[in-house]
Amino acid sequence: MMDVGVRELRDALSKHLAVVREGRTITVTDHGRPVARIVPVGTPTKLEQLIADGLVTPARRTPQALPPSVEASGTVSDLVAEQRR
Which residues of 32-70 are buried (b: 16+ CB within 10 A; e: fewer)? Predict the structure, then answer.
């Protein structure tokens, strides 16, 4: 793995993409803090690898829509206090 600053990446993008084509991963940093990774296209994500290894099971159903909002007046604290009476 290789760390590259944003400016360096921008100035030598072709060179860094050649490194990725060779199969290596580049971590992009901004002021020394990691902000992104550039990985080869054929490389599975950690989640994909865990699923392939049988260590993780993907969700069987899609998340349900949230119920409709409740119309109310006043603050949440007022509503809770009213319910406790």
Answer: eeeeeebeeeeeeeeeeeeeeeeeeeeeeeeeeeeeeee
